[in-house]
Design a protein that fits this description.
alpha/beta, single chain, 11 helices, seven-stranded mixed β-sheet
Length: 294
């Protein structure tokens, strides 16, 4: 028998959950996001509370499981996306778990930058370095309709989640997953890559403890820790990409706000890049660096 709850009971729980979030200094909007994921209710019915008179509201899980997950949000500060095991990114619903970084809205701009930069020919070989959930590779596949895309990650568990997302979004025939550290599994494509994208770890090691509880306690440290100065992975990608990119190939990364000038300096010092530019996110912070292989 499928699980359900009365509208009256759910309304009472919702009011208490909103109060609990406000007390914990978390956004009360999370309650309705959570309820939309575990019931058949939509934004409007929740806002108007028109569901209160319903005798039965079907649930995706047992009520005890739902309340157990909610307590993890309040007490352990587990991110909502991990509790729901999904995140909406661009126009895709992607599976996530604590084995992968939660794809952020600002990372969507990486795909927009490629769309604005690549005109006409959208083929070639493209790479998503450190793919995690597979989000960037999926975003690339959605706009580069003729491209062959490789997504690499060191973590086998991350690749298993990426594989599920790639299949579910319909790009299994165009995205190839490779296990290994950065370029390691791509040796045979040296000098052939049309574009490289990455959202690498860029938080200085000593500052991990200053991050929100949700991030420092629950997201994978491997995807966060950028070494002593936060630039370890970025420095590696600057140094090694020219061996793999073809002439005119794009180098595009996400970084931490404030790292732009240092990344530009590294690219200039490397000597194999041109058209180097910092691109801001929607909040006006330096968030991306784009360059072209000479």
């Amino acid at each position: 028998m499928s699980a359900s709850i009365s509208g009256q009971e759910l309304s009472q729980w919702r009011q208490q959950a909103i109060a609990d979030l406000e007390q914990a200094q978390l956004s009360p909007k999370e309650v309705d996001i959570f309820l939309q994921a575990v019931t058949d209710l939509d934004t409007l019915s929740l806002r108007l509370q028109s569901f209160r008179e319903r005798e039965k509201i079907p649930l995706s899980y047992s009520w005890s499981e739902i309340t157990k997950r909610w307590q993890k949000r309040l007490q352990a500060r587990v991110p909502l996306q991990y509790l729901l095991e999904s995140v909406v990114w661009r126009n895709f619903t992607l599976k996530v778990s604590p084995e992968v970084l939660i794809p952020r809205p600002e990372t969507e701009l990486l795909i927009d930058i490629v769309g604005e930069t690549v005109r006409g020919d959208d083929g070639g070989i493209w790479v998503d370095m450190g793919t995690g959930s597979g989000a960037i590779a999926i975003g690339l596949a959605s706009i580069l309709t003729k491209a062959e895309i490789y997504a690499t990650d060191y973590s086998q568990t991350a690749l298993a989640i990426a594989k599920e997302n790639i299949i579910n979004t319909g790009f299994a025939d165009r995205i190839i997953l490779k296990q290994g550290s950065w370029w390691t599994p791509l040796e045979k494509w040296k000098g052939q890559i049309s574009g490289m994208l990455s959202n690498p770890p860029y938080i200085p090691s000593a500052e991990i403890l200053d991050l929100q509880i949700e991030v420092r306690e629950h997201e994978p440290r491997l995807a966060l820790d950028g070494g002593e100065d936060g630039l370890t992975a970025l420095r590696y990608l600057v140094a090694t990409a020219p061996d793999y990119l073809r002439s005119g190939g794009l180098w595009l990364v996400e970084m931490r706000a404030g790292q732009g000038e240092k990344v530009v300096q590294m690219l200039e010092n490397q000597g194999n890049y041109r058209q180097i530019q910092i691109i801001n996110d929607l909040a006006g912070f330096d968030r991306f660096v784009l360059a072209e292989r000479i």
